[in-house]
Amino acid sequence: MIISSARAFGQTYSQLVEFGDKKVADRDYYYALEFYRKAMDIDSNSVEINWKYAEALRLYKDYPKAEFYYAKVFKKEDARIYPRSIFWLASMQYQNGKYEQSLDTWKAAKKVYKKDRDSYEYLKASQMMKNALWAKRAVRDTTEHIVKPLPSPVNSKNTEFAPMIFNDRLYFSSLQPDSINYQEEVYDSEYSIEIYTADQQDSIFNNVLILEDVTQRGFNTANGSFSPDGKRFYFSRCNSAYECKIFVGKVDGNKIKDIDSLGDVINEPGYIATMPHCTRVGEYEVLFFVSNMKFNYGGLDIWYSIITNGNQYSLPKSLGGDINTLDDEISPFYDTVEQKLYFSSSWYPGFGGQDIFFAKNYNFTFKDPENAGIPINSTKNDMYYMIDQKKKVSYFASNREGVQFAKNPTCCNDIFSAVIPKVEEPPSRFKDLNDLNKKLPVKLYFHNDEPNPRTKDTVSTLTYMEAYNEYIKLVPKYKKEYSAGLTGDDAEDAKEDINDLFVQYVEQGVRDLEDFLHLLKIELDKGYEIEVTIKGFASPLAKTDYNVPLTKRRINSLIKYLYVHDYGSLVPYLNGTAPNGGKLTFVKIPFGEYTADQLISDNPNDAKNSVYSRKAALERKIEIQSVSFVEKDSSYSKMSFDKQAHDFGDSKQGDILTWEFKFKNTGEEILRIGEIVESTDNLTYDLSQSVFQPGESGSIILTWDTSNQKGITFARLIIHSNIKDGKKELTLTSEIR
Q1: Count of other CB atoms within 10 angstroms of residue 116
Q2: pLDDT tens-digit readout, 252-291
Q3: What is the pTM of this model?
Q4: Domains, the chain, with CATH or none
Q5: DSSP element (H, E) containing 434
Q6: Is 688 helix (H, G, I), strand (E, B) or coil?
Q7: Strands 529-537 and 583-590: what pairing?
Q8: Tens-place pLDDT, residues 298-328
Q9: By the 8 A CB rule, do 185 and 412 touch?
Q10: Max CA-CA distance within the chain?
C-alpha cells in the first residue's frame, strides 16, 4: 500500500486528484491528504483542490487546518461554486472554539441560504447563531469533574469508544488493524471494529481481550450492552458500508451464545439500527437504540422499545422532537439512579462537534436537554457517556487534545474517566461569587418608550417579562418598518438583520437572565447578603429629562419581575424576611441616553432609524453588571449609599454643578477609605474624613465644572476602600447646552 502510494506521487495533477478521491471513498483520509497535497504542489490556486483538501482535513478531524483551507475556498468563490464552503468554515471556527468569529460567519451563512428557509443549511445556521451566543458565556463555566484519559492498554493510537462497565469489567469498542501497517482510523479491509473487555482493579484496567464470541469476519462489531439481569448481550454489527443492525446473544458464564438479529421490528429493512442500550426505566425493561428509520427528525434519532419476557419487543417509539433534531442524536445511556437520559448531539447549544447532554424522565417523556458542561464536553466530539454508579465514576469517548495519536492530535477517540473529587476542606467561601459574576453582564432590551410610554414615572406597572413578551410580538412590525423603501435582496437582508437582532440580543438576554437567577437563588439560599448593580440605558430619541425616568422604569420592571419569578421564591430575600439571613439589594444607575451613540437618529419623524433600526434597539436596555455579597455571621465594613447616581438634567456650559452623596457604614468593622479616582479633571470631591466607625454616617460632595463640557455627558468617581469588593462608583449626568 505504501509503495503503490509513492509511485502515484509521480503522476499528473488529474491522476493525483483521482487517487485522492478514491482514498476518500475508502475513508482513508490520511493518504487522501497525501495525494491532494501533491496535487496542490502542482496547482495551489485551484479552488477544486483547495476544497477537496479542506474536506479531507475535516473528515480526518484536523479542524484548524480545515478551517484555514475552507477560508481560502470561500474567499475565492464566495460559496458560489461550493455552497457549503461558508457552512463548513463556520463549523470549523466553532469546533476550534472561535465562537465570536463563528457567530459572524453563521450570520453570513444565513444570507447565503436564505432563498430556502426550510433547508437544513439555513435552519442549522440559525440554530448555530444561538449556540454561539450560549457558548460565549458557557465556556467560562466548569463542573467539578476531574477528567483523565484511560491509560494503556485500553487506550491506544487507534480509536476507542463505547465504554461500558458490567460486573466490574470494562467493555469497549476499538478500531484496530489486522496487520502491523498502522495508519490512524482507516476504514479498509486491514482494519475492523471489535468489542474488547478488560479486568478492573480499582481504577486500573488490564488484561485486554477481544470478545471473540460476537466477532464475525468481514463485519464491524461495536456498542455492547448487557440486559439488566445480565442474561443477554446486545451489540451492533455493521457491514463494510456501515449498514448496521442490532444483534443479541445469550450469556452463558463467560460465553455469549445463540447470537441472532433482533429481526425487522427493530432492524427495519433499508435503515440503520445501532448503539443499543438495554436498561430498566421504572418497572419496564427498555431497549434504547439509534436509527434513521422512517418518520425520523433528521439523521440518526433515538428510539426505544419495551421488552417483555426477555424476547418480545414492542414497536419502536421515537423520543420525539423534544430530543431528536435535524442532526444526529446518538449513544443513549439511561441513569437509573438519577432517572436521566444521557446522549450526544451536535444541534443543541454546545462547545463544538458532538456534546453530551442529559434530559430528565417524565414518564417516558424526555425534554429540555441540558449540556453536561466543561470538562465533560470540549470543543471536539464527546459521546458514549455512561456512569458506573457503584464506583461513582463516569466514562465517555472523545477526540479532544490529550488522546494518544501518531500524526493528528484529534484524529481518534480515546476513553476518558470523570470523577467528582471528595472535598476534604471547604472551598474558598467566595468561589461562588466568581461563578455568579461569570454570567454577567446580563443585557435586557426594550421597545421604544417601554414600559409605560408617555410618562415621566419612575415606577413601572409591568414586569420585565411582560414588557419582553409584548416586545417579541413586534418582530413583524420591526421587519416591515426597517425594510420599508427597500426591494429584493436589500429588503430581505434588512429583515434578516432584525431577526438576528432579536435572536442574538433580545431573546438571548432572557436566557441569560434565567441562568443568572438560577445561580442567584442558590447563593441566597446559603444565607448570603447580595448586592446587584443594575444600569439603565436609552436611545437618544427623547430628551434627557425624559430618558432618565424611562431608564428608572426599566430597572424597576426587572425588580418587579424578581418578585414573581419562580412563584415568588425570591420575595423573602427582597423584603429582608428570609429566615437564613439572606438578603437581595440593588444599586440602580439610570444613565438615560448618556452613553448612547449620538449618531443614532433622534428624529421622531424618522421612525425607521430612530425606533426600528438595529442601532437604536441596542441602546434601549438595562444591564445587570455586577454582584457582591458577604456571608452571614461575617464581619465586614459596608459603605451603603442612598443612591449612587444623580442627573442634573439640562445645564448651561460653565455651570458649577454640586451634589452631596450620603452614605453609612452599615457593617461591623471600621470603614477605611483609600484612593479616590476622578474620571475627569473637571470633577473634584470633598470628603471630611476617611475613617468611619460601624454605624457612622458620612458624605462626599462632588463639584463638576462644566466650562469645557458640551452636550450629553457624565462624570464618574471611583472610591476605593476596605469593603468586601473594594470600591464604589458614583456617577453624575447632565445635558450641557
Answers
A1: 10
A2: 998 999 999 998 999 999 999 999 999 999 999 999 999 9
A3: 0.79
A4: 146-419 (2.115.10.20), 426-634 (3.30.1330.60), 635-737 (2.60.40.10)
A5: helix 431-437
A6: coil
A7: parallel
A8: 999 999 999 999 999 999 999 999 999 999 9
A9: yes
A10: 96
